[in-house]
Write a structure and sequence with these properties.
The chain has helices spanning 21-28, 111-129, 135-143, 148-155, 163-171, 175-230; strands spanning 2-7, 16-20, 37-43, 57-69, 74-90, 96-102. By secondary structure, the chain is an alpha+beta fold. Strands 1, 2, 3, 4, 5 and 6 form a 6-stranded mixed β-sheet that branches. Helix 4 (148-155) crosses helix 6. The radius of gyration is 26 Å and the shape is elongated. The termini are far apart.
Length: 236
C-alpha cells in the first residue's frame, strides 16, 4: 500500500481527493495504478520527501484507493475511513511504512439535514460561479459534487486556512461537527473573497479618480496656455 504525504490539503473520509500524477510519483516513488490502495497523511510543514521524518506528520490520516488515473496528469483518490497513525517508519529510500488502526466516527448527522444544507451550499456556489469567466464549466463542476466533503476537498487549494485548521476537520470525530466546520470554512472564505473584491474595486475607483483629476488638470493647463497666447496683455 502506498503512503502519500500531502501538505495544506483538506482530507475528508468518504469523499474524493485529487492529486497531480507527478506529485504522487515524487512523494511515493511509485507509478499510480487504478484500484491501488493508499493511505494519505498530512504533513505539518511543506518539506521535500527527503527531509520528512517520523515527526513530520499529524497523527490521523485517511485510507482510500485510486479510482482514476486520467490523461490530464491527475489522479483521483476515493477516500474511505480515517485512521490513527500508531507508528511511522521512514526507510533509507524515503519510503514510508505505517502501523494504523481505524478511527471511528460519531454518527450524529441526520441525512435529511445534511442533504438540505448541501443544497443550500450548492445554491451559494452556483451564485458565486457567476463571477467567473467560465461560468458553465464552473457550474458543471459544482453539479457533480455530492457532499460537503467533496466540495471542501476540491476547493482546498484556494481556501485561506492554516494547516492546523485543515487538520482540525480530519481530527473531528463527530460527523455533524465536522460538517459544520467544513461549511463554516467555505462561508468564511466566501466573505473574505467578497471583502477582498470590494477593496480592489474601491482601490480601482480611487485610481480612476486620481487619473481623471490629473487629466482635468492637464486640460486646464492647456486651455490656460491657449488663453494666455490669445491675450498676452492680460494677467492670470
Amino acid at each position: 500500500m502506498a503512503v502519500v504525504p500531502v501538505y495544506n490539503s483538506i482530507l475528508v473520509p468518504e469523499s474524493t481527493f485529487v492529486l497531480q500524477t507527478d506529485y504522487y510519483k515524487k512523494m511515493t516513488g511509485k507509478v499510480p495504478n487504478q484500484g491501488e490502495k493508499v493511505t494519505v497523511i498530512l504533513c505539518r510543514e511543506n518539506l521535500p520527501r527527503e527531509e520528512l521524518t517520523e515527526d513530520s506528520f499529524y497523527p490521523i490520516g485517511v485510507q482510500g484507493s485510486i479510482s482514476e488515473v486520467n490523461q490530464n496528469g491527475y489522479i483521483v483518490i476515493r477516500t474511505g475511513s480515517r485512521v490513527n497513525l500508531n507508528e511511522i517508519t521512514i526507510y533509507n529510500d524515503h519510503s514510508i511504512d505505517l502501523d494504523i488502526t481505524k478511527r471511528k466516527d460519531i454518527d450524529d448527522l441526520d441525512p435529511d439535514v445534511a442533504e438540505e444544507r448541501l443544497k443550500k451550499l450548492k445554491r451559494q456556489l452556483f451564485k458565486y460561479a457567476e463571477n467567473f469567466e467560465n461560468v458553465q464549466i464552473s457550474r458543471a463542476f459544482i453539479a457533480q459534487w455530492h457532499s460537503v466533503g467533496e466540495i471542501v476537498s476540491a476547493m482546498g487549494p484556494w481556501l485561506m486556512n492554516s494547516s492546523k485548521e485543515r487538520y482540525a476537520v480530519l481530527a473531528e470525530d463527530s460527523r455533524a461537527a465536522r460538517q459544520e466546520l467544513m461549511e463554516n470554512m467555505i462561508y468564511e472564505n466566501f466573505e473574505a473573497y467578497k471583502i477582498n473584491n470590494e477593496a480592489e474595486n474601491a482601490q480601482e475607483e480611487e485610481h480612476k479618480k486620481i487619473y481623471r483629476e490629473a487629466a482635468i488638470k492637464k486640460q486646464m493647463e492647456y486651455l490656460q496656455k491657449e488663453l494666455d497666447e490669445m491675450h498676452p496683455e492680460e494677467d492670470d
